Amino acid sequence: MNYFKFCREATLELSSNKIPPGSLLPYYWNANAPSLVNYIEQSTYGLRGVITDSITGVPLEAKVEIIGFDVDSSHVYSDLPIGNYHRYLIQGNYQVTYSKSGYKSKTISVAIIDGSPTYLDIQLSNINNSVGIEFQENPKTIVNSSDILGRSVSNKKNIIIINTYSDGSIEKKIIIE
What we know:
By secondary structure, this protein is mainly β. The protein has one helix spanning 25-42; strands spanning 46-53, 63-66, 76-77, 84-87, 92-99, 106-112, 117-119, 122-124, 142-146, 159-165, 170-175.
């Protein structure tokens, strides 16, 4: 079912025994919890954003395809009601095409950096749109992560983090574990 709905899934096998005794569950948790948390964190990286109509701002369910990469139908679709999408990608440069029936497709060059998400909100123009003005979107990437004293941050847990983005915007957040 997930293949036909273009979902991503992963199966983690923690034991060679299909149903291990309950007394071993704390052992399996302690042995695998850090890896599971890291896996969840890694899933937030890649390319993400929101796709909307350029005039109305209404969220769209559009196809997000990596040119020369998604030959095995591994493209994704933005999800309604928000129009958000997420595409797992490793570091590199990609040509990303956004398309929807009744709208002009848009292809954009994107540079992905390991260890941080790249945000790219897209507006697609309706084919019947007579305005004809289109803007080139630039991906928003984290340029610097620091603590409140301005020191570079490597451990991003239990501290205040200040992220500076390539467009000059600043995000402040606290991650508590």
